Amino acid sequence: MLIVGSLTRAPNYLEGVLSTHVEVDGSDATSWIGDMIMDSRFHEQAKVIFTDGGAVGGFNVIDLEDLHELTGIPVISVSRDEPDFQGIERALKKHFTDWRSRLELFRTGDVHTVETGHLPIYIKMEGVELNEARRLLKLFTVRGRLPEPVRISHLVASGIVRGESRGKA
Fold this sequence. Notes:
Elements: E1 2-9, E2 13-21, H1 29-38, E3 49-52, E4 55-56, E5 60-61, H2 64-71, E6 75-79, H3 85-95, H4 99-107, E7 112-114, E8 121-126, H5 130-140, H6 148-162
Parallel strand pairs: 3-6
Antiparallel strand pairs: 1-2, 4-5, 6-8, 7-8
């Protein structure tokens, strides 16, 4: 599955685009995303990593702590919806023998509600304090609820996969 990252200078100047692939429902997202960033010519410019939720490619869960350790860069996971841990647990139990370890990654860290000018967003973070995470979210959010690096990455990825960008980025 294609993963796209965008290096964005605040608030919304696109410096570069990165990509990698992860296994759908695999367990390689953290290492591939870390390698994508660290192998890039942009890695020294990166000051924060925003992820679109806690998993990619279905249930390929991102370990925020490991990603922070791999890169030395603060990580903020952003979601429009409050995590439904009971629903996640039911889905994981149904499809995975290693459901406990995946669920543990989903549950690691506190979920914080961050108010925006619109509906709230929900974040988890590693390597950054809550007040700084809120400041970074405000700095990188131009319109709507999502920070520009997440929005841009979503638009680029959907444009590549579907032939044109669509949906809520």
